[in-house]
Structure formats: structure tokens, C-alpha cells
Automatic annotation (TrEMBL):
Keywords: Oxidoreductase. PANTHER family: NADPH-DEPENDENT ALDEHYDE REDUCTASE-LIKE PROTEIN, CHLOROPLASTIC-RELATED (PTHR48107), RE15974P (PTHR48107:SF7). Belongs to the short-chain dehydrogenases/reductases (SDR) family. This is NAD(P)-dependent dehydrogenase (Short-subunit alcohol dehydrogenase family). SMART domains: PKS_KR.
Length: 303
């Protein structure tokens, strides 16, 4: 009795497809039970090995990940072995470029469109993350907005509310959905959250962005309170306060060259790079920071 081996594709649960060798008895309608058992055991071993590897991969969501600090953080997390949800608001092309770069380097990523100021969008984004990459283990609340530099006399309720909706409510909503999934009480495995605040929360941004600064002050309070609330659920919550960083956000405020204008007042006499902030964020998410929660790290060149 001879055996003929044919390669066939088998769709496995999740996102995996495995090619295996099926043994068929030549010139017979029956498959030898022993050969079939070997094939089954091989498939089981390969599937279980892949499942184990996948279960060891932490899923991270980075909001506002199509540019600046968010982009740098998403790329660095992928290099460190995370599967990364790349959230964006409008620039799908930029988000897909981040995803493509991660995938080209052997990582796993998914672009996720959502306006974090919208509760419905946030709920849908987390559901999509669940379905594509799996349960979240790390959240980077980074998406934020600011408007043209203005004094208090020039601020309108519409502008103030827009800033607070994204920079404060958006952070709350993302934290809520992450905690639902991470919490030990809910059957989760714990996790870590990093809220990207700003040195403006300490300095106030007078005459320029007091509304933005106030929103970041609220982020700091959220970080402090939430860290205490969820510590027993295996979740750590920390904050990072960047200073003058070379990102596109300054153009939104009407002054693309702002960092170069003000860098001479900094003790380090230079602006920061997004990658420098990303290093801090990824450290806070890592097991190296396992006893750190409710803390803040300033990345502001000494200011």
C-alpha cells in the first residue's frame, strides 16, 4: 500500500491559514488511520504553537497614531513585539503608511478610524480592535487638538468645548473601554495605560493655549484618580508630559516654527523628537515599569 501526499490549505480559527500535507492511500478510498493520526497531531501541534505565540503578543492601541508622537510610539511598540491598533481621525493614507511600515518589518497592525470625542466611534473602534487584533493590553491616549494661538478674550465656548471633547472626554471614553477589557474583575489579564498630557498642564500656556493647557490639567487628574481606582484590577495608569517637541501640531496653532523660536529658553537648548517621547511611553507600558502607577514623566528638556 502506498501513500500519496497532497498539500491543502486549512483555515484555522482567528487570522491563521496553515498549509499541511494530507496523506491519502494511493488507489484506495480509505485513509490509513495511523497516517491520519500523525497528520492530526501535526496540525494540532502547529496550531497550538501558533496560538501560544499569539497569546503572548500584547495588543496596544495608540490614538492619534498617524503622525507625531503617536506615529513614533506605534512604530516602536511594533518593534518591541506588540500588535498595534493605529487610530486616526481623517488621514487614512498616513495611518495606512504606518501599518504598512509595521507589516513590512514583520509586525502586525490595523488602522482604526475613530473620532475619540464620539462615544459611538470609540465603542466601535474597540469592537473592531477586538475582532482584528484581539483583546487590548496597552492603551496610549495620545490624540489631541489645539487651535490658533489666542488670549482668553478671544476664546469662544465652541472652541473650548471642542478642545475638551477630544482632549478630555476622548481620554475618558478610551480609558473606560480599555478598563472594561483589561480588568481582572471582568476576566481580563490586566494591562497598562499611558495618557499623553503636556508640560502646558504645569505651565499654563498663557496668551497662547490656556484652553489646551487646562484640558491637559484634566488629563493629569484623570491619570492620578484612575491609577488608584484600577490598581487592584491589574491595571497601571501613568502620564507623560511632553514639552516642545518637533511635531505637526504646532502648525495647527499657527506657528510651525514654534519649537525653534522658544528652544533657547530651555535648559537643554533644543526641542525634542517624537521618538524620545515614544521611548518613555513604551517603557511605562512595559514590565520594566511594573511597580509604577499614578506617576508622571516630563519630557520637556528641563523646563
Amino acid at each position: 500500500m502506498g501513500y500519496q501526499f497532497n498539500k491543502k490549505a486549512v483555515a484555522l480559527p482567528g487570522r491563521f491559514e496553515l498549509y499541511i500535507l494530507f496523506a491519502e492511500v494511493a488507489d484506495s478510498q480509505d485513509i490509513d488511520k495511523q497516517v491520519a493520526h500523525v497528520v492530526f497531531m501535526s496540525v494540532s501541534y502547529l496550531f497550538n504553537s501558533q496560538t501560544e505565540r499569539n497569546s503572548m503578543t500584547t495588543v496596544a492601541l495608540v490614538t492619534g497614531a498617524s503622525r507625531g508622537i503617536g506615529r513614533a510610539t506605534a512604530l516602536l511598540l511594533a518593534q518591541q513585539g506588540y500588535a498595534v491598533g493605529v487610530n486616526y481621525l481623517q488621514d487614512e493614507a498616513a495611518a495606512q503608511q504606518v501599518v504598512a511600515q509595521i507589516c513590512e518589518q514583520g509586525g502586525e497592525a490595523q488602522a482604526l478610524q475613530a473620532n475619540i470625542a464620539s462615544e459611538a466611534d470609540v465603542v466601535a473602534m474597540f469592537a473592531e480592535l477586538d475582532a482584528t487584533l484581539g483583546p487590548i493590553g496597552a492603551l496610549v491616549n495620545n490624540a489631541g487638538i489645539l487651535f490658533q494661538q489666542a488670549s482668553i478674550e478671544q476664546l469662544t465656548a465652541e472652541r473650548i468645548n471642542k478642545v475638551l471633547a477630544t482632549n478630555v472626554t476622548g481620554y475618558f471614553l478610551c480609558c473606560r473601554e480599555a478598563v472594561k477589557r483589561m480588568s481582572l474583575r471582568s476576566g481580563g489579564q490586566g494591562g497598562a495605560i499611558v495618557n499623553v498630557s503636556s508640560a502646558a498642564a504645569r505651565l499654563g500656556a498663557p496668551g497662547e493655549y490656556v484652553d489646551y493647557a487646562a484640558s491637559k490639567g484634566a488629563v493629569d487628574t484623570l491619570t492620578t484618580g484612575l491609577a488608584q481606582e484600577v490598581a487592584a484590577q491589574g491595571i497601571r495608569v501613568n502620564g507623560v508630559r511632553p514639552g516642545f517637541i518637533y511635531t505637526e501640531m504646532h502648525a495647527c496653532g499657527g506657528e510651525p516654527g514654534r519649537v525653534d523660536r522658544v528652544k533657547t529658553v530651555l535648559p537643554m537648548q533644543r526641542g525634542g523628537q517624537p521618538e524620545e517621547v515614544a521611548q518613555i511611553i513604551t517603557w511605562l507600558l512595559s514590565d520594566a515599569a511594573s511597580y509604577v502607577t499614578g506617576s508622571f514623566i516630563d519630557a520637556a528638556g528641563g523646563r
